[in-house]
Write a structure and sequence with these properties.
about 450 residues, single chain, 8 strands, about 10% strand, alpha+beta, 60s Ribosomal Protein L30, Chain: A
Length: about 450
């Protein structure tokens, strides 16, 4: 079956009127959440590095860099804004694939939409198309893609950016097909960063994917072609990144079953496998009223992938990236600081003797029940057991991270956006994006995304 062609047809033919109300609301919420994360992320050291880099590259002043208000080329703006969005483990997440789409799709639709004076409805449609394309490609190459060395956002994100760009530029099927093919050649990103606990490379994966996908689409626009079987071909994406690819997942339910509705948001600024651990610990602290000084030991039960390859590996983090992927450090941080968000993960916390000492009493352990559930549907679950100095022991289990409500997302957006913009501008931005379908020109939104 010509799966690459069918995906291109979907991206070209889907109409705004085809979208269910729930899908429209989800797309708007994803954009709101992503732009809040990007605003806060723009203030971090690696975000500033990306900003300085794109300034040095120059480029036609067409697309806005969040916070700073400088305009550059769409590719450069998307690289900076995507790096801001993936720069502090606060993304949205598609649980079945581990994809973080907001750091790719939101920068892309803003960068391209601004050049085309696109309407809010066009932006919403492009977001939906990008998510449906990206997630199905990831599903087709899983579980190998999910569990192996390749980073799903870095590898599948270029397809999302290419799809969104092509739709906003009104590509025909042939040009969209070539954009997808060229995007496949831009797939990159390895789990060596950050799971070794060294360096900040992972921070730029969202920006890489966004800019790579835009480049792919713009090359297709200029007539560059690629193989029409980039997804299904024996040497194509799905076989390259998946050991036993499930090609049927590319089109199963396409246009009727919406993967975008399976996207959730991180509650804490940490790796997804730590999130349910922190949630369980937070519930226990509220219920049993103990403090960090009361804790003798914490055991965090999880599946083998989390325990052996991810959050159980880094015991003594040396930088903030590795701290956000260290379960024992992150749980100690929560207990000492009372939170695990943007304002808690700091250099001061990294060197806090109370956190360091407490982290040595916290361990991950393989939990068979959590493991069996993970093998079925990939939920991010955890079982937390806390033993106090008094001898009392408490246990709580979170089968899967709780879904954030509309109010939760709005409040998270406010906390992050106001790192950069005023409370007044923040509220106007929130209202505007929650009603994005009424926006006639997306470029009118950019002043709200800058200081």
């Amino acid at each position: 079956m010509d799966y690459t062609r069918l995906m291109a047809q979907f991206a070209v033919q889907l109409k705004y009127s085809d979208l269910p109300a729930a899908v429209i609301e989800k797309a708007k919420e994803i954009a709101l959440h992503a732009w809040g994360v990007q605003l806060a992320g723009s203030t971090l050291p690696w975000g500033k590095s990306a900003y300085r880099h794109v300034l040095d590259q120059g480029g036609s002043p067409k697309s806005t860099i969040l916070n700073y208000g400088v305009k550059t080329s769409p590719m450069n703006a998307a690289f900076a804004n995507g790096t801001f969005g993936h720069g502090f483990e606060m993304d949205d997440n598609h649980a079945s694939t581990g994809l973080k789409g907001g750091c790719v799709v939101a920068p892309t639709v803003l960068a391209i939409g601004e050049t085309q004076l696109c309407t809010g409805q066009e932006i919403i449609l492009a977001i939906v198309i990008a998510y449906e394309v990206m997630t199905r490609i990831a599903l087709s190459a899983s579980p190998a893609l999910f569990s192996g060395p390749h980073h799903s956002t870095g590898t599948c994100g270029p397809f999302a950016a290419a799809a969104a760009t092509g739709r906003l530029l009104r590509f025909d099927e042939k040009t969209m097909l070539n954009a997808f093919s060229i995007a496949g050649g831009h797939s990159a990103g390895l789990h060596e960063a950050p799971l070794t606990g060294r360096g900040e490379l992972k921070r730029i994966y969202g920006g890489m994917a966004a800019s790579n996908g835009i480049r792919a689409a713009l090359l297709a626009k200029e007539g560059l072609t690629g193989p029409t079987t980039m997804l299904e071909g024996k040497l194509g994406f799905c076989h390259a990144f998946g050991d036993t690819p499930n090609l049927a997942a590319l089109t199963a339910g396409l246009g009727s079953e919406w993967q975008i509705l399976r996207v959730h948001y991180k509650i804490y600024a940490q790796d997804g496998y730590i999130q349910p651990m922190t949630e369980a610990l937070e519930r226990m602290v509220k219920q049993y009223k103990f403090s960090a000084d009361d804790v003798a030991e914490v055991i965090a039960g999880c599946g083998h992938h989390a325990h052996d390859q991810v959050v159980g590996v880094i015991r003594e983090p040396k930088d903030l990236t590795s701290a956000q992927f260290s379960a024992n450090f992150s749980l100690a941080l929560f207990l000492v600081k009372g939170g695990a968000g943007f304002h808690e993960y700091t250099e001061d916390s990294l060197n806090d003797p109370r956190i360091i000492a407490l982290s040595k009493t916290i361990h991950t352990a393989l939990d068979d029940e959590i493991e069996q559930e993970w093998l079925k549907t990939r939920p991010r679950g955890a079982r937390i057991t806390v033993r106090l100095n008094s001898g009392k022991t408490y246990t709580d289990i979170v089968p899967n991270l709780r879904a954030m409500t509309v109010d939760d997302v709005n409040e998270k957006f406010r906390r992050l956006a106001t790192v950069v913009i005023s409370a007044e501008k923040c509220e106007k931005l929130l209202t505007t994006v929650r009603n994005l379908e009424d926006v006639r020109d997306i470029s009118t939104l950019t002043p709200l995304l800058t200081r």
